[in-house]
Amino acid sequence: MKQIAIFNHKGGVSKTTMTFHLAWMLATFGKRVMVVDCDPQCNLTGIFIGNLDTDDYPFESASPQRPRNIRDAVRPAFESRPYSITATELYESSLQPGLFLLPGHVGLSEYESQLAVAHELSNTLSALQNIPGALHHAIERSAVLNNIDYALVDMSPSLGALNQNLFMTSDAFILPMAPDLFSSMALRSLARTLPKWAEWGRKASANTILKEADYPFRPITPSYLGATVNNFRKRARGGEEARPTQAFQKWFDRLAEARDTELIYALDSARMLLSPEIYANAHAPTNDFLMEIGSLDGLIATAQELAKPVFAIDLAVDTTFRGTVGESYQTKIDDIEGGFRAGAEKVIALTDQF
Hints:
Elements: E1 2-6, H1 15-28, E2 33-37, H2 43-49, H3 70-78, E3 91-92, E4 99-102, H4 112-121, H5 134-145, E5 150-154, H6 161-168, E6 172-177, H7 181-206, H8 208-211, E7 223-230, E8 234-235, E9 243-244, H9 246-269, H10 276-281, E10 291-293, H11 299-306, H12 315-318, H13 323-351
Parallel strand pairs: 1-5, 1-6, 2-4, 2-5, 6-7, 7-10
Antiparallel strand pairs: 3-4, 8-9
Helix pairs in contact: 1-2, 1-13, 3-5, 7-9
């Protein structure tokens, strides 16, 4: 199982939507994929199951020893329960074979402060030693039981302890962005933050107490797979391939500059890059974006109602769009499918080298 963190502490970058679409596309390649909703807002869980017509959350755990969400999965470690972390009951998509959800829970945020304390004091207080490795252990148990190839972890937009832990126990990471000023600022912020996280992770994994824990802290430094740019307008000029409009192209250029002059240098110094040959062989050089996914427009509402990605919408069956409008939407669907297909191929090629 390859655990991939999908992370940006800047909100509004289509992180959750991108996670769901990429996971679905990986499943179409025959991979068994689990999306893990670690954002207490639970937006990924909502997207996965579509319209939720109930007054009760469908993934509450009837028994504490048979967890049905990520909060209850790690409860034994965080609440010192007299039983071990076990695999979470996953929810399989009825529309895409091989695609599973490890549901989120609003209550996961209650463990944030406790995890922060454990990060600081677990090297001196053995009572906290099982907490730092618990999240990855819970994800791994579920993955092993269900023969999962990829676990895509959707994270909240923050630099808190939960995200630091999830990020630093993943095999790899993807940084989703939007073409705007604040994403450019966030990219520079990540260039300063991620090396600090990497140094913390190496110290944690070398700590004797954490090595001897029931859930050892994972000794790994995650690798950069790429950054994505989402939600922008495209326009075709003179019969050429559609490209970002001039207004968005300005921010593409700014993002590329921040990526090439600050982020990549920082990740290289922190040993968070794969070899240049691996990126080249996967057709995913670090001076390109992993994916460029244009605006989903009105199609996203239809997709969410259907609990499927935009590129899986069948206009003739799922919508009333016909004629010129239908043709326009079909062009957009085909473009989005092509973007995610190329992105999934790169992810598979990059992670096959681990």
